[in-house]
Design a protein that fits this description.
heterodimer; A: 143 residues; alpha+beta; 5-stranded antiparallel beta sheet; 4 helices; B: 117 residues; alpha/beta; Transcription Regulator spoIIAA; 41% helix; Anti-sigma-factor_SerPK (chain A); ATP binding (chain A); ATP-binding protein (chain A); nucleotide-binding (chain A)
């Protein structure tokens, strides 16, 4: 089991430029935590997708609030939790609170979740009163 | 790394767009603007060379799909050059390998285009 506390926590202003930073940090922590090299590309892409979604949601509804990323290692799995602060933002629902900019770029597609689901070894998407929490995890190689 | 986007048009009226760098939520608008600009200039047959793309996310995919919709409205085409497995995997996951023609090289794409004429 992964530890309950995050080994690395990241909070960043909801700017698209910072998504790249989050990707780089997540990949570095995953590598240090023992995720196989062959899986690091998947970690990088899936974390980027989750952060992109959160950034666009914040930019529309709460641009002053930071997006939060927790990176937990030290257990059997490397766990990433990306949390936004947009209440009732059901990420799988089309329309409604779908971020404007991402919708404009993606058209009618919801490719981000298709990518996350296709890449992360284990995914859980929870829509809570305080926001959406995307939890993803990958196995850690044992010495 | 910034996204570099350059284009040239071949003598068979194919516009090749060379893309270099990372295509993500930050840089994808630059590619989107390029595609829109080309369509507005009457360039309806586009080939996006992705051999120097280091990273592609769903925002980039969405921009390519948007470009495809735009050129198809003019009976045009948008195809890709890509041999990188890490990039091709994203197209497979999203089922977009069935939507885009994907070639190993610009020459292969041009040859295929000639055969279809």
């Amino acid at each position: 089991m992964a530890p309950e506390t995050a080994t690395v926590e990241l909070a960043f202003s909801p700017l698209p430029a910072h998504v790249r930073t989050a990707r780089l940090i997540a990949t570095a922590v995953a590598r240090r935590g023992g995720v196989e090299e062959t899986l690091l590309d998947e970690v990088r892409l899936a974390v980027g997708e989750a952060c992109s979604r959160a950034v666009e949601a914040h930019r529309k509804q709460c641009p002053e609030e930071p997006v939060r990323v927790e990176l937990r290692d030290g257990g059997d799995r490397f766990v990433v939790v990306v949390t936004d602060r947009v209440p009732d933002d059901d990420p799988t629902r089309s329309g409604g609170t779908e971020p404007v900019d991402l919708t404009e770029l993606n058209g009618d597609l919801n490719l981000g979740f298709a990518v996350i689901a296709g890449l992360a070894d284990d995914v859980d998407i929870a829509s809570t009163p305080s926001g959406v929490e995307i939890t993803m995890s990958w196995p850690v190689k044992k010495d | 790394m910034d996204l570099k986007v350059n284009d040239y048009t071949t003598d068979d009226d194919l516009t090749v767009i060379n893309v270099e760098g990372e295509i993500d939520v930050y840089t994808a608008p630059k590619l989107r603007e390029k595609l829109i600009d080309l369509v507005n200039k009457g360039k309806y047959h586009l080939l996006v060379d992705m051999e120097k793309v280091e990273f592609l996310d769903s925002t980039g995919l969405g921009v390519l799909v948007g470009g495809l919709k735009r050129v198809r409205a003019h009976d045009g085409s948008l195809e890709l050059v890509c041999t990188q497995e890490r990039i091709l995997k994203i197209f497979r996951i999203t089922g977009l390998t069935k939507v885009f023609g994907i070639f190993d090289s610009v020459d292969d794409a041009r040859e295929h285009r000639q055969k279809q004429k």
